[in-house]
Amino acid sequence: MRTLRSPVSGGRLQRSVAACLASILELDAAEVPVPEERHPEPWTVWRNWLAQRGLGLVPISEPSTFDWPGPWLALLRASDGDGLVGAVAFGAPPGLAWQPLGGPETFDAVERGSLVAPADVALWTPSPAAAPRRVGSVEALLVAPRAEAAMTGAGPVAARAGRGLEGDRYLDGRGTFSSAYGRGHDLTLIEAEALDELRLAPEETRRNVVTRGIDLNALVGRRFRIGDVDCFGQRLCEPCAHLDRLIADAGRPGTLRALIHKGGLRADLLTDGELRVGDRIAAD
To answer: pTM (2 decimals)?
Structure first.
């Protein structure tokens, strides 16, 4: 998601929605049409514009509880009671990642929501990315004994296949997102480079493994090794309202947007073993 200036002309709804679409699609704000304030069908303007790009707006039936590890368009009740304003929501559980007009509205004011989606996912392809970094190392290891407990440094630490790390809440299914049927809860990783950029301490992100030198986003759907332990990258470990609240409680508000696509990786442990600071990390 790009940081943008919202259009300066047009009604609040038109300006905020156009800015949100530009941010979600990572376009310049000038590329998104801003219907006139009195336009009888502003949503038709945006739907036609999206259709030219093979995209559409999919209504979300219950946006207040819509868990989605990606950005979507939220419409909030304006604080003055005069209509709706657009914002970008993100996360599972969801929260507000960006409000183009900078108003006081919170996620509790959400009334409607839409997901920007390709009309045919089989025909949609993302932009080519730079060649990923395939080798790195472990810079830090952290565990927490229960949900929301403070993360503490560890190492060496025993890794249990299909369960998690010894001393961590997910090993025994006591984490906030623990699920007997879910995958990707054994191990969470985050890049030290992202922490450096955002000036976050490792324990603030609540990830188990801090890495350096390897592109974690490129490990989704791939096997990799940490030392002698085999792992599998399940999905990105995107930020959410829960993490944003915990970091805010520690005095660092507003980190949800900054961590989007930089929140690291959720992985499964495929073999038992031991993780140590300094271990080599490499993709198969």
So the answer is: 0.76
Give, as one character, the DSSP assignment of residue 127: P
Name the DSSP letter for residue 243.
H
**Is 246 in contact with 148 (CB distance < 8 Å)?**
yes
- Residues 6 or more apart in contact with residue 30 via CB below 8 angstroms: none
| Among 256, 252, 262, residue whose Cα is nearest residue 242 | 256
Q: What is the pLDDT of residue 279?
A: 98
pLDDT interval class at 8 (50, 70, 90)? low
51-98 pLDDT, tens per residue?
Answer: 888 899 999 999 999 999 999 999 999 999 999 999 999 999 999 999
Count of CB atoms situated within 10 Å of the CB of 32: 22
What pLDDT is recorded for position 126? 64
3-state secondary structure 17-29: HHHHHHHHHCCCH
SS (HEC) of 51-87: HCCCEEEEECCCHHHCCEEEEEEEEEECCCCCCEEEE
Q: Which of 53, 279, 252 is nearest to 187 (CA)?
A: 279
Residue 179 and residue 186 in contact, taking contact as beta carbons nearer than 8 Å: no
Cα–Cα distance for residue pair 61/284, rounded to 1 Å: 41
Please give the radius of gyration of the chain, using alpha carbons only, rounded to the nearest integer: 20
Among 176, 179, 181, smallest CA distance to 91 is for: 176
- Give the pairing of strands 209-212 and 187-191: parallel
Instruction: For tokens 């003055």, name the residue.
Output: 80
Q: pLDDT by residue (tens digit) across 175-198?
A: 888 887 678 899 999 999 999 998
Identity of the amino acid at 214: I
**Structure tokens, 144:** 């927490």
